[in-house]
Specification:
The chain is of the alpha/beta class and about 700 residues long. It is about 50% helix and about 10% strand. Strands 12-11-10-13-14-15-16-17 form an eight-stranded mixed beta sheet, sandwiched between helices. The longest helix is centred in the C-terminal third of the chain and has 21 residues, at about 605-625. It is globular, with a radius of gyration of 29 Å. It binds nicotinamide-adenine-dinucleotide. The site of nicotinamide-adenine-dinucleotide has 24 residues, from helix 12, helix 15 and strand 15.
Length: about 700
């Protein structure tokens, strides 16, 4: 039993006791019913209180039970709620901390609800590709009205109890309790013990929405804001059903939708993303109880684009930062940009003035290494040059206190080599932030062969503190993200060389769900970066086949939005891409020089080549042990590269396509004389999994 039962002063108290969030696993569900039965049978009990032990009331389903038989073992949540509603003695939910998903549905089955201020209230099922499955879509509109319920259910966002209790006419909470929740709930239960009939959400009708077309509008808005996603639309259907069906019929409707969605590809993908995020923080050979180093004070070297953004990540988390530069002008410029970023947030009402000031007060600057010596962690973000970085790391080795973590934000350099310039290579690690560093959620943690386990454990913890999704990568060219992305871009180039247009490739990728197609991404990030890398890399490896279309547009100075022209033209001050005749002519010339005859290419082929190129590279990455698990590759793509979350990432996409089909498709691509046949040789791991009927995930 994951509950406890106790009678105090004629009130039975059932405590949900299933850490960390009192998830409604089988033991908790059975415990509630058991407690209710005891209370019914005990003549000395007048009323029942259900409360959560620890920091929260209930976070919903027990995610550890997902997919196991006990998830379906009786009593299911619906019958627990039926038992609560049917209780002859009043049941009071005493709610604090968090009441989410099934936890909120359970509370809605109680006769009364008292709540602590600051409680987060949500039905987040939509984020897992589902609708709430135990009456949430039917009962929430009855207590909060259609508009508020619709907003909460379709976004999954949590709202604070203090705010909800102010909703006009709300019937969700009977009382806001400041002070000791349990004693107040017991006192409340005694006050209401004799009142009959017992109030019940089931008996409430749904008030007609203020605007008749609320559902039509919601559907249209969600089609834009949550494009491609099925679950939000189904949430609207369910809430609408609550306005026209009685509660039992509404619950049957909701159940049918729930059952359909739980077997859907989108739900599978979104749940994969949810669990993938949790899995990514675990490193197989670094035990969970590895002692952590203290990180209370951070230094950042270099106040450029990345250094400034990285500093902001720590300031936002309340960690003091010292920013070191070579010249005062560079400091002034860097700090000026940080200020400007914060001030923009303040003027948009996203950051309170006092919070902004508190963050800036945590920031100090210096030109002198002596001033950073006592920092617990230092992150280097200077120019991408091994010589410059080596000089910096030698200096850090000289001055930093023993045990300080020395991190580099390099995007391409060998972290092993950087570590080796110091006398303490075990303290060195790569922390590859993505630009803008204060916004992007992805952080690749680059583990060198020298990095100590406690350094790994500590930086994973630090990543959590600064709200990043950290994914561990071994040392290799491009790490996980850029190494796979390079293949994707290479395919985009081959595709236009063979006859697709730039717009067609981008549109096909965007229709598939990418936030932006590869050419628009290039124009945004700057085409010169890849150009410089290709010049360096392909000089070293002349045998590598690639299309020269990217070089051709860079030779025309078309570096992207920053110069007003790239794969597209841009009008001054605008970001709208306009197809370019100059680009098309350059592509036509590359094609003619190579003797390729343009052919019509289908959107299906475009998407398959773009995505499967990442899958094949991903399989090599896994096989080489650069990544710990396939879902880590998916997390990189979902959190850092705009891969559609509802497809779960490239590796899950391949799994869902079926690996034998993936292998077969790659074999076909190998036959294309204008592509890189050697690249399309399916990775041995992929071939093996396909042959064994297995999947990546
Ligand atoms: N820009 C990106 O999108 C991006 C993304 C991920 C990683 N990175 C990596 O981050 C690092 C920094 O890139 P950036 O875009 O911020 O460059 P940047 O040119 O904007 O900033 C570099 C800063 O470092 C300072 N600097 C140079 N040498 C120094 C030294 N010896 N001591 C102190 N300060 C020094 C410079 O004055 C400059 O302000 C590079 O390694 C880059 O590869 C960049």
């Amino acid at each position: 039993m994951s509950t406890s039962y106790q009678v105090t002063d004629g009130v039975a108290v059932i405590s949900l006791d299933n850490p960390p969030v009192n998830g409604l696993g089988h033991g908790t569900r059975a415990g509630v019913v058991d407690g209710l039965n005891k209370a019914q049978a005990d003549a000395g009990v007048q009323a029942v209180v259900i409360i959560g032990s620890g920091k929260v009331f209930c976070g919903g389903a027990d995610i550890r039970e997902f997919g196991s038989p006990s998830a379906f073992a009786a009593p299911d949540l619906q019958s627990v709620i039926d038992a609560l509603e049917g209780s002859s003695k009043p049941v009071v939910a005493a709610i604090h901390g968090v009441v989410m998903g099934g936890g909120l549905e359970l509370a809605l089955g109680c006769h009364y609800r008292v709540v602590s201020p600051g409680t987060q209230v949500a039905l987040p099922e939509v984020n897992l590709g589902l609708v709430p499955g135990a009456g949430g879509t039917q009962r929430l509109p009855r207590v909060l009205g259609v508009e508020t319920a619709l907003q909460m259910i379709t976004t999954g966002m949590s709202v604070l109890s203090d705010k909800l209790i102010k909703t006009p006419g709300q019937k969700l909470f009977d009382r806001l309790v400041d002070g000791d929740l349990l004693s107040s709930a017991i006192a409340f239960a005694k006050d209401v013990a004799a009142i009959r009939p017992l109030p019940c959400v089931r008996q409430l009708s749904v008030a007609a929405p203020a605007e008749a077309d609320v559902f039509t509008k919601a559907r249209a808005d969600l089609a834009k804001t949550r494009r491609h996603l099925e679950a939000p639309q189904h949430c609207v259907d369910c809430v609408e059903a609550a306005t026209r069906l009685d509660l039992d019929a509404g619950i049957r409707f909701e159940r049918e939708v729930f059952v359909k969605l739980i077997a859907s590809d989108q739900a599978r993908a979104l749940q994969h993303a949810f669990f993938g995020e949790r899995a990514a923080s675990k490193i197989p050979d670094v035990p969970a109880d590895t002692p952590l180093r203290k990180v209370d004070k951070v230094a950042v070297i270099g106040a450029g684009t990345m250094g400034g953004g990285i500093a902001m990540c720590f300031l936002n988390a309340g960690v003091p930062v010292v920013l070191l530069e070579m010249k005062q002008e560079a400091i002034d410029r860097g700090v000026g940009i940080i200020r400007k970023n914060y001030e923009a947030q303040v003027s948009k009402g996203k950051l309170a003035q006092d919070k902004y000031e508190a963050r800036m007060a945590l920031l100090s600057t210096t030109l002198d290494y002596a001033a950073i010596a006592q920092a617990d962690m230092v992150i280097e973000a200077v120019f991408e040059d091994l010589g410059v970085k080596s000089t910096v790391f030698k200096k850090l080795d000289e001055v930093m206190k023993p045990g300080a973590i020395l991190a580099s934000n390099t995007s391409t350099l060998d972290v092993d080599k950087i570590a080796e310039v110091t006398q303490r290579p075990g303290d060195v690690v790569g922390l590859h932030f993505f630009s803008p560093a204060n916004v992007m959620r992805l952080l690749e943690v680059v583990r060198s062969k020298h990095t100590a386990k406690d350094v790994m454990a500590t930086v994973m913890q630090v990543a959590k503190k600064i709200k990043k999704i950290a994914v561990v990568s071994g040392v290799c060219d491009g790490f996980i993200g850029n190494r796979m992305f390079e293949q994707y871009t290479r395919q985009a180039f081959f595709l236009v060389e063979e006859g697709a247009t730039v717009q067609q490739v981008d549109q096909a990728a965007e229709k598939f769900g990418f936030a932006m197609g590869p050419f628009r991404v290039g124009d945004l990030a700057g085409n010169d970066i890849g150009f410089a890398i290709r010049k360096r890399r392909y000089l070293e490896k002349p045998e590598v086949r690639y299309s020269k279309v990217g070089d051709a547009i860079c030779e025309l100075g078309r570096f992207g939005q920053k110069v007003g022209k790239g794969w597209y033209d841009y009008e001054v001050g605008k970001r709208e891409p306009v197809p370019s005749a100059e680009v098309q002519a350059a592509i036509d010339k590359v094609r003619a020089d190579k003797g390729v005859t343009a052919r019509a290419i289908s959107d299906e082929e475009i998407v398959a080549r773009l995505v499967l190129s990442m899958v094949n590279e991903g399989a090599h990455i896994l096989q080489e042990g650069i990544a710990n698990r396939a879902s880590d590759l998916d997390m990189v793509y979902l959190s850092g590269y705009g891969f559609p979350v509802w497809r779960g990432g490239p590796m899950l996409y391949a799994d869902m396509l079926g690996l034998p089909k993936v292998v077969e498709t790659m074999q076909q691509f190998k036959q294309n004389p204008h592509d890189d046949a050697a690249f399309w040789e399916p990775a041995p791991l992929l071939v093996k999994l396909a042959a064994e009927g297995k999947t990546f995930n």
